[in-house]
Amino acid sequence: METRQQGFLDSQPLREADEDLVSEVSLNATNMTEEEREEILQELIKLEEEISTLKQVLLSKEKQHAELRQKLGITPLSELRNNFSRGWHDMQTSTAYKKTSETLSTAGQKTSAAFSNLGTALTRKFGDMRNSPSFRSFEEKVENTVSTIKTKVGGTGTGGSFEEVLSSAANASVQETPTNDLTDPSERPC
Q1: What is the C-alpha separation between 49 and 57, in angstroms, rounded?
Q2: Is this model's pTM higher than 0.85 or not?
Q3: Would you give the end-to-end CA distance of the chain in angstroms?
Q4: Beta-strand runs (E) in the chain
Q5: How many CA atoms lie within 13 A of 139 on its CB side?
Q6: What gap in Å lies between CA 156 and CA 150, rounded to an integer?
């Protein structure tokens, strides 16, 4: 049989011989007398009683603590709110928050000024573009196209806005669309 050293966590299950060995081990290996054993048992009993008493006292104190907090109106929610308010105040007074706030404020002012300048520049460019000869030429072509569409649709031929032309074209197409009604008018429900 091969012998090898194993640790505390033996992966093999206990055998019957191991169980016998364990039952033979004496828990009184220190060769203590019966009198010493009784003293230790008495001390153990006394300690267990003290622990029990201390648990009861602690439970009583915790109950008293909860009652006093309730009388003062201190609830877990109010505590959380106070802690949050205190934390928010501490954060706002921190130097990092102040620096960040100042930086964001400056960035906001610069961004606002940039958008204002952009708006002014775009307005100026659109005004210049509208007055340019190429835009005027484009505008004339659109007006001629609208006029031609109105004439073909059956309008008066000149004047009117683009919306009026579209509206009249839509009305004309509705009037010219044939109906696919195959039922006899006398058979239609009222």
Answers
A1: 12
A2: no
A3: 107
A4: none
A5: 9
A6: 7
Tokens 């509208």, residue?
A: 130
Question: If we measure between CA atoms, which residue out of 99, 119, 127 comes closest to residue 111?
Answer: 119
Contact indicator for 168, 155 with CB cutoff of 8 Å = yes
Half-sphere exposure of 99 (CA within 13 A, CB side): 3
Two structure tokens written together for 82: 């106070």
Q: What one-character DSSP code corresponds to residue 131?
A: T
What is the average per-residue pLDDT within 102-117? 91
The pair of structure tokens assigned to 160 is 């009117």
Cβ-based burial of 71 (10 A; exposed 0-12, middle 13-18, buried ≥19): exposed
Question: Tens digits of per-residue pLDDT, 32-46?
Answer: 899 999 999 999 999
Residues 129, 135 contacting (CB under 8 angstroms):
yes
Under the phi-then-psi rule, with left for phi > 0, alpha for psi from -120 to 50, and beta for the rest, what region is 179? Answer: beta
According to the model, what pLDDT value does residue 23 have? 54
Does the CA dihedral 6-7-13-17 come out positive or negative? Answer: positive
User: Cα Rg for the chain, rounded, in angstroms?
Assistant: 49
Q: For the chain, give the number of residues.
A: 190
pLDDT in tens, 48-94: 999 999 999 999 999 999 999 989 988 888 888 889 999 999 888 88
Distance CA 37, CA 19 (A): 26
